[in-house]
Amino acid sequence: MIRSDTIALTLAEDGEYVPPLSFLKAAQAFMVVLGELDAAISGEASGTLRWAISDLAMGSSATMGVTGIARDDQPDHGPAVIAACIRGLADLEEAAVRPQYFSDRALQAAKELPQPLAGGVRQIAIRGAGRQINVTQHVAANVDEVLGQTYLAPSSVEGRLEAVSIHDRLSFGVWEAVEHRRVECRFREDMLEEVRSALGRRVLVTGDVRFTASGQPLRVQVESIRVFPEEDALPRTEDLAGLAPDLTGGMDSADYVRRMRDERD
Question: What is the pTM of this model?
Answer without folding.
Answer: 0.66
